[in-house]
Amino acid sequence: MKKITKCLLVVAVMLFTAFSFSQSTITGKVFGSDMNASLPGANVIEKGTSNGTTTNFDGEFELTTTSSSGEIVISYVGYVAQTIAFNGNQDLGTITLMSSEVGLEEIMIVASVAVDRKTPVAVSTVRAEEIALKLGTQEFPEVLKSTPGVYATKSGGGFGDGRINLRGFDSENVAVMINGVPVNDMENGRVFWSNWAGLGDVTSTLQVQRGLGAARVAVPSIGGTINILTKTTDVEEGGNVMTTLGNDGYTKFGVTYSTGLMDNGFAATVSASKTDGDGYVRGTQFNAVNYFVNVSKEINDFHKLSFTAFGAKQRHGQRQNRQLIEVYKRSPDGIKYNQDWGYKNGQVTFIEDNFYHKPQISLNHYWTLNDKTDISTAAYVSFGSGGGGGTLGSDADAPGFENDGRFKFTDPEYRIGNFGPLDFDRIVDENIANGANGSNAALRASRNDHNWYGVLSTLKSDLSEDLVLLAGLDYRNYTGIHFREVTDLLGGQFIINEDDVNNSTGVAREGDKVAYYNDGLVGWLGFFGQLEYDINEDFNTFVSVNASNTSYKRKDYFNYLDGDPLQETDRFNFFGFGAKGGGNYRIDNMHNVFVNVGYFEKAADFDAVFPNFNNEEINENAENQKIASYEVGYGFRSDKFTANVNLYRTAWRDRTETISFQLNEDETGFANILGVNAIHQGVEVDFVYKATDKLNVRGMLSLGDWRWEENVTDVNIINEEQEVVDTVDLFIEDIPVGDAAQTTFALGTDYRFSQNTRFTIDYNYFARLYADFDPSDRGTEGAPDPWKVPDYGVFDTAFSHTFPFGSFEATLIARMNNVFDTEYIADALDGTDSNAETALVYYGFGRTFSVGATIKF
Q: Is 770 helix (H, G, I), strand (E, B) or coil?
């Protein structure tokens, strides 16, 4: 018996020794070439097995293999996978994965992409894989709703009508850039997401830089910068077909194909998709065709060219009019109620809709002068065409569109009374009966076409091993073409048009311009420079300056006879400048701190110069808006836990604020209000905890304190002769800023059953959301704070699974938003008494879902 026991022990020791010698421990660190930053979550798999691991927050990994020699495969979405041989225990050092897209690294230079733990700004980055998982049927900005400082909603609920606020600032004061090119409207700074209806399909990386941001160009980044990098063209040949189905008839299908990088240096990618649906809100049917083309050519070692064109031609019904809470509760449609649509000849007809096509075309040239200096230049053009619908009538009440129920359907099939859709056929009958008197009511479109050209060029030069110079030019030329046109006379022969002094007939027919017709011309020339100094590998600093001139000019074709000198104004120039700087110190591999500070001035809005929409009343006292900001941040990184804490304070001085007055029947006036100041300050915390190899827990907390700073009194009201006729007061001191939740909280889990199967649950909570209001409406001392919307929270979940499909690879993604069908108010406009009874609101969506499939080939 003892001999048998000894034999068994000897065999066990031999087996253990053999098994131990057949294993190897492989370590290394994975970097991405595009941002020269670590890649947390990269997959490291022993080839031919299911044995693998992922990199930690610093891109480091340790893998115990099942054999003493073999190969490991390192992969990450958006990068070319690497296969590396090993033999015994081995430290592979730093492994750099190359971007899977040609020219993406060069675009990142123009786009001012921030690098984690190096660029001293508060930043959150979402990559293509996360966008595909999170987007579903949501609006594109909602992908960011779990990001600190962000409040994103669907607004009225039409397709593409979403909006986003960053640190309490609306889109007019948040810079949105696509491939480094600013896309905020040149006249008012707004961003219309419906213009980019297919953006989610072609986005490679979405980065939010809160506060001053890393952008070197002079952009209106008071709240921050949203940096969107689209796909370029794939290094490897292939493509995919996809389809998505969702609630309320949502249907989407598309295809993408890439040639890959050929031996002659040529590569091309094309992508197209079509989206249709009925819309969650009544009367918001939509359709969109999205397209993307990129062609790249490596001419030689010194020159690369990249041509990109993308856009979306779309049309969708809108819910433009907020309602009292009581109206939603009384309507059979509930929170889906919408008064802005009806039926004509049995077909859905929109009272309010949006249609637009805004292709953006750019040619990028990358020139390597030598091993230390290169120049990246983007020449771009955008032609926008479209607008939004509405009504026309013989007086302010637009007869035929009253809300008294006279033209509402009474058939129960179409709802009833005041809450039913409009019966356009009855309006058509009345207009026909009106005969030679023309239409009492018609439909129109307010057009906002534009032509936009620009050049953005950046020089990057390594002055030494530690000092980098970036400098460049930013030129833009923009013409906004604004007019209203008749789209449907609803059975009539014409409609009265007395607004055009050059129209002797006094009437308008379908396709004719009515109400107004003018051009807004905006010129821009800017210069920027930045020095980046790495004192050592742990301490990075930068200082950046920029200067720009914004010019405004207005042409009016309706208010003045052709040839009248007043038909075209002079140019009005605004000189703006900015300076910012900061530093990041990596205390060790786990801790880093950063600080940034800056000041800049931006031009007053176009409408501030022409407050009454004519060429006579010019606001010559319009001033630049002044913004001062600073921020400190702390970051922590370990194998299991990463966290960031940011404290910020932004002072916004001389916010553009003008009020127009109808002084009498024939005379208008305006007040140019300076001193409308606000303070936005707060603290933001976000973290990710790697509980196990399969489970990540992530969360964030954002606490803002955004208030108007002081009252503004005794502001002069000026008449057309530039005479003071009265004064106006604004009592806004210490009143909370509305329109965005000042407290946001998010907690989510991400569980990977395997490398190919993933399940997420996210909870988002929003509090201290005050109803929006115009400071100009606060003319009474002692008025209450705006109404505070009830706090709310929603759960979202998503599931994805990738599997072989014949010789292809297929991915299924299912997503559900607002899982528990929570009823909540997402947007509110303050009422006369600042309470729930008088506020006008939009409800957020109830439960929605989507299921999609993608097959890669």
A: strand
Place of tokens 């930045």: 530
For residues 686-694, average pLDDT: 92
Kindly list the domain boundaries of the chain, sorted by start residue. Answer: 19-97, 233-656+676-709+735-856
| Helix, strand or coil, per DSSP, at residue 358 | coil
Counting other chains too, the contacts that 395-400 makes at CB distance below 8 Å and 24 or more residues apart are 398/441, 399/440, 399/441, 400/427, 400/430, 400/431, 400/440, 400/441, 400/490
Q: How far is CA 123 from CA 594, 646, 659, 689, in A?
A: 12, 10, 37, 18
On the CB side of 262, CA atoms within 13 Å amount to: 11
Determine contact, residues 86/217, Cβ cutoff 8 Å.
no
Tell me the pLDDT of the chain averaged across its residues.
89
Structure tokens at 277: 């649906």
Task: For the chain, give the longest Cα–Cα distance.
Answer: 120
- In order, the DSSP letters of 337-348 are --SSEEEETTEE
Q: How many CB atoms lie within 10 A of CB 212?
A: 29
Q: Which helix (H) or strand (E) holds 64?
A: strand 60-64
- 706 has which bridge partners? 680
Strand-pair partners of 647: 632, 683
What dotted CATH number matches 233-656+676-709+735-856? 2.40.170.20
CATH class of 19-97: mainly beta
Tell me the pLDDT tens digit for each residue of 601-637.
999 999 999 998 999 889 888 999 999 999 999 999 9
Query: Contact 77/61 with Cβ under 8 angstroms?
Result: no
DSSP 98: P
What is the per-residue pLDDT for 18? 44
pTM: 0.89
Residues 770 and 737: beta-carbon distance below 8 Å: yes
Per-residue H/E/C for 135-174: CCCCCHHHHHCCCCCEEEECCCCCCCCCEEEECCECHHHE
